[in-house]
Fold these 3 entries.
Entry 1:
Amino acid sequence: MIEAGLGIWAVAIPAILLALLALAEYAQPRRALVLGRHPRWRTHALFFLTNAVVGRLLALVMVVGVAAQWSADFGFGLFHLASWPWWIEASLAFIILDFAVWLQHLLMHRWPLLWRMHKVHHSDRDLDATTALRFHPFELIVSTLYKSAWVALLGVPVTIALVFEIWLNANSLFNHSNIRLPRWLDRALRPVVVTPDMHLVHHSTLATEQHCNYGFALTIWDRISGSYAARSVLGEQQQIGLAETSDTSPGQFLWSMKLPLT
């Protein structure tokens, strides 16, 4: 029953947050959009729908919740080797899974085959909350199997695994958003969580800056590894997207879907 309720919230919370961020972007945008909202939003909606279908098919084989339930049924995973209070398990799960997502993101940039898929996300020439929906279906498959393996190996309880997914998706929407945070708030948040200005650097057309700020939620991993960058070397002149793409192609769904093959 709890898991079913969380499943509803896993859809409702990101949907509400996306709507609120879209309104905030319209009221007080951080940057002027190069391609605008249309047809980008239509393309990102098509990515969302495509990935929703792929996600339903994956559910027949493996999803994060299924991996968590499997580890619970068979007593498999690190957390089943010790009887820790739930808050310790939850804290460790969030920290370790956040590191796993950071590591996956780094590998997406370092391994050529994975980069061919991930560059679809980076090809967007603007950055707003809908960019968090812009992932190629093959990347979704890799990401789902990867996170599911971590959840199973750790033995993360189902409820904690689902709450982490909600937390991760909410952070992704937030740090991709085109909102202008007060400077004092940005400075206050950065020691802990990734802010929109911090993630903006990662979407630079400069390859060196694409290898900075891999975090989706916590900033600690970039700070420890030395991949943290406070701002772009280009300042407000920073451009977003891929250096080799300077036309309107990224706003097209079919072009974006075929990009890994080019």
Note: The chain is about 60% helix and 0% strand.
Entry 2:
Amino acid sequence: MSAAAGGGADLAGKVAIVTGAGRSLGRSYAIALAAAGAEVVVNDVDADSAADTAAEIERAGGRATTVVAPVGPSETAEALVDAATERFGRLDVLVANAGVLRDRVLWKMSDDDFDAVVSTHLRGSFTCGRAAAIAMREQGEGGRIVLIGSPAGQFGSFGQTNYCAVKAGLVAMARTWSLELARAGITANAVIPTALSPMTATIPAYAELYERFLEGEPIPAEYRRDHALGSPEDVAPLIVWLASDAASGVTGQAIGIGGDRLTLYSHPGEAAVVFRDGGWDPAGIGDAWERELAAHAQTSGPTVPLD
């Protein structure tokens, strides 16, 4: 496949793993990486979906192989790395995308609801990231690790205790890995995608828009800009760019993309600081809150109204 298909990014000779690549966003990432020249290990729990993605890559002249297994267990992570190195001879890029939803409000969320999301998103990214880092460090030529966050992890989202927690954790994980892997020339970044997808369709405010999108209607400009909602293919260029040599100096960042919007998220920082000689008591804290801190308090939830 030609580098031109990747929008100017040349990934020829590179090998990428994409988890959860059977459909929607993960599928678009795998196809775009292949279009830029990478050979791709396609992972999904659904064998037919994984095979469809790999077949699409091969029809376009690329090379792909599949690993059908749920992420989370270390055995899956090792199988993915083995598939890359045994089939294609190396590993350069990991895109840890696989995820599930188990939405419930706090008082109705079961242990299984919580654990399923943590196991897939957080543990799955950890085990895959660890296996990839070991292989890349042994290879000695650097590498790229891309974790997939969410606006929910940045701002919170009603009914998504589990999902918000893991997505916030993934951003922190990427920042930590950017420090630990810097000497090896391996970058680690988090992408915060927003796109019309089966997950987006679970948000009532977007359900009708998603149905119209599936029917082939264009996405209105206000959604592409104000809501940062486009197609999964609108997100893929950021994945390709981060995988390329052009982004070799970019690490430890959380970068959002969707529709027509590209966003660099800030690291958490101190919004305001107050000092009191000798320390604090409850009354002093209450007074400082009213006088100095309350004006800097930050809201939770989406930055775009969904009503």
Note: The two ends are 44 Å apart (CA to CA).
Entry 3:
Amino acid sequence: MKLTLFPVLRRPRLGLAALAMTAVLAGCASPTHKAPVEDRQAPATGSTVSTPVPAETPKAPPPGAENAGKPGYYTIKPGDTLIRIGLDNGQNWRDIARWNGIENPNLIEVGQVLRIVAPGVDASTVATARPVPPPGRVESKPLDSASPASGATAAAAPAPAASPVVAAPAPAPAAPSTDPEDNLNWAWPAAGPVASGFDEARSKGLAISGKAGDPVLAAADGRVVYAGSGLRGYGNLVIVKHNATYLTAYAHNQTLLVKEDQAVRRGQKIAEMGSSDAERVQLHFEIRRQGKPIDPARLLPPR
């Protein structure tokens, strides 16, 4: 008879899955095999975290930029409109739109370069200055001229001593222009007195006074290239193109009597005088030679 003092403890059989799990746990507990740790703490106050910035797509140049600075081209500036560009360059704004493939005249951008001479025209010859015909005579009168009171007498004053008068030599007459573009038969656009003369820096034309509704006449034969109020500072405006060199502008009208692309004759009534976009009733009249304002008195006949 055998006596067993201690019970025999049998080690349970472990399956393969249990053995694998045991090995993994042992590896994790081993100090020589540390598991990777991801630091999820927020950055300290004042520290910066750099974030990659995506590269910006380069902006395409404005249309026509390759022609900037060339003769016969114009770079659009802030505030420009096709009407203003046409007036300043002696062109019909519709022609400029057609030459540049512009369908919507309101969709132009600063920096865009426009062709301002017809395709096939040598821009260098267009920009060449030509002599202007000799001036006519114009007298400027203020709008409110004071007249002496009825019955008033001026105080007698001693007559000044006579002094010899030396006649100034008469200026040599300017040579007549040989350019057929200058041979236009000009007429005054209104019958009123001239309130202010030509000033290239400010007015760019003549201010002719009158009453609301007075007739405004075409100064020479031509074709209307603009009739509207889309040019700031001019009110109701008519622009007539007479040939490749000259155009005229009639501003501040109360009523326009012509439409764009309409042919007009010298002396034809094209508008009625008014005060649109002006402080008083007046006709602002400009003559532009290749887009440059010139003194109308140099072309209008003497009164």
Note: The first strand starts at residue 73 and ends at 75.
